[in-house]
Specification:
alpha/beta; 6 helices; binds 4-nitrophenyl phosphate
């Protein structure tokens, strides 16, 4: 079983989408996909309504997800930890206990655009088009991730 964790700040906008999209592209008996946030503001909450809406538009249900905060034990539980932006990267890296932990943390868009260190923009304070844009970025990245899993 491969285990992949998607991480953003609130675990209500970007990483729930990434979780739902990757789950839709892999054999869920072989790959376990989860998501978490670096912050605790929204723990226990549903994904943002705009994320639920854009996912549903593409046939993906993310309404069963609830936000949780990243914990250090996630380094033991997951093989790969995909973060959305530089801020998430620094936050997760600061919790790493070893080189092995550090090596699990990757910027998700580097899967599609190696070494470019591009960020998935935080759509929280924007309009619906931000969510569509985020969806497309994550869909492309998850195509690469699913192929190499
Ligand atoms: P996410 O978006 O990190 O993609 O889930 C955010 C959601 C909530 C907040 C920030 C970003 N917030 O500050 O509450």
């Amino acid at each position: 079983m491969r285990r992949v964790l998607m991480v953003c700040l609130g675990n209500i906008c970007r990483s729930p989408l990434a979780e739902g999209i990757l789950k839709s592209k892999v054999n869920n008996d072989e790959v376990f996909v989860d998501s978490a946030g670096t912050g605790a503001y929204h723990v226990g909450n549903l994904p943002d309504a705009r994320s639920i809406e854009v996912a549903a538009k593409y046939g993906i249900n993310i309404k069963d997800q609830r936000a949780r905060k990243f914990v250090v034990k996630d380094f033991d539980k997951f093989d790969a930890i995909y973060v959305m932006d530089d801020s998430n990267y620094q936050n997760i890296l600061s919790l790493a206990r070893s080189i092995e932990d550090e090596e699990k943390v990757k910027l998700i868009l580097n899967e599609a655009y190696p070494n470019k260190n591009l960020n998935v923009p935080d759509p929280y304070y924007g309009g619906d088009s931000g969510f569509e844009n985020v969806y497309k970025m994550l869909d492309e990245a998850c195509n690469f991730i699913s192929k190499k899993l």
